[in-house]
C-alpha cells in the first residue's frame, strides 16, 4: 500500500530543495517513492507540473539488456543503442502514480507563486519521510497516513498540534 502526502510551500525553490533531499534519501534506500511531483502556481496564475523523468532509468536498463543481447549476436554496441532507445521510450510512456488532473486542480487552489510537493511512497517508513521533510517546514494539505503518523508530520512541519 502506498501513502500520499501533499505539502504546500511558499515558493518553488523550497519545494525543489525538498525534492533534492528526498532524492538523496531514495538513492540511499531510506525511502521508496512511487511518484514525486512539484505543482507550481506561477505569478500569472498558470499551473505547471514538475515531474522527474523516468526516461533516463529506462534507457540505462534498456542499454544493459540490449548490450547483453547484442553480445549473443556479436553486435554489443548496436544492441546497447537499440536497448537504450526502447528503454527510454518505455520509461517515457509509463506514467504511473498521482493523477495529473488531481495535481492541476490542487495547483489551481494554491496562491500565485506558491508550490506544493506531492509524494506517493510505500507504507512502512513514514518516520524516514518525516525526518527528511522536517527541516523545510511547510503546510500539510492532504495525507493518507494514519492519524498518529499524520500528527507527527504536522508537528515536524511546525504546525500546531491538533487538539482533541
- Structural category is alpha+beta
Q: Quick one: CATH class of the largest domain?
A: Alpha Beta
Number of domains: 2
Give the termini separation.
Answer: 28 Å
- The CATH level-2 architecture of the largest domain is identified as 2-Layer Sandwich
Sum this structure up briefly.
The protein has helices at residues 12-27, 55-72, 76-93, 100-108, 126-133, 147-157, and strands at residues 2-9, 33-41, 47-50, 115-122, 139-143. It is an alpha+beta fold and 164 residues long.
Explained architecture:
The longest helix is centred in the middle third of the chain and has 18 residues, at 55-72. The protein is of the alpha+beta class. Helix 2 packs antiparallel against helix 3. A hairpin with a 5-residue loop joins strand 2 (33-41) and strand 3. The protein has helices spanning 12-27, 55-72, 76-93, 100-108, 126-133, 147-157; strands at residues 2-9, 33-41, 47-50, 115-122, 139-143. It has a 5-stranded antiparallel β-sheet with strand order 3-2-4-1-5, with helices on both faces.
From the structure above, extract its key features:
164 residues, alpha+beta, Alpha-Beta Plaits, five-stranded antiparallel sheet, 5 strands
Helix and strand topology:
Layout: E1 2-9, H1 12-27, E2 33-41, E3 47-50, H2 55-72, H3 76-93, H4 100-108, E4 115-122, H5 126-133, E5 139-143, H6 147-157
Helix pairs in contact: 1-5, 2-3, 5-6
Amino acid at each position: 500500500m502506498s501513502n500520499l502526502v501533499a505539502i504546500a510551500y511558499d515558493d518553488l525553490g523550497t519545494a525543489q530543495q525538498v525534492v533534492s533531499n528526498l532524492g538523496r534519501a531514495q538513492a540511499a534506500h531510506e525511502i521508496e517513492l512511487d511518484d514525486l511531483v512539484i505543482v507550481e502556481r506561477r505569478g500569472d496564475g498558470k499551473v505547471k507540473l514538475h515531474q522527474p523523468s523516468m526516461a533516463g532509468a529506462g534507457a540505462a536498463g534498456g542499454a544493459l539488456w540490449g548490450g547483453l543481447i547484442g553480445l549473443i549476436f556479436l553486435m554489443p554496441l548496436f544492441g546497447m543503442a537499440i536497448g537504450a532507445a526502447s528503454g527510454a521510450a518505455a520509461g517515457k510512456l509509463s506514467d504511473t502514480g498521482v493523477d495529473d488532473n488531481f495535481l492541476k486542480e490542487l495547483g489551481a487552489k494554491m496562491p500565485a507563486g506558491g508550490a506544493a510537493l506531492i509524494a506517493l511512497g510505500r507504507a512502512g517508513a513514514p518516520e524516514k519521510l518525516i525526518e527528511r521533510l522536517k527541516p523545510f517546514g511547510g503546510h500539510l494539505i492532504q495525507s493518507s497516513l494514519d492519524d498518529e503518523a499524520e500528527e507527527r508530520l504536522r508537528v515536524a512541519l511546525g504546525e500546531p498540534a491538533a487538539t482533541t
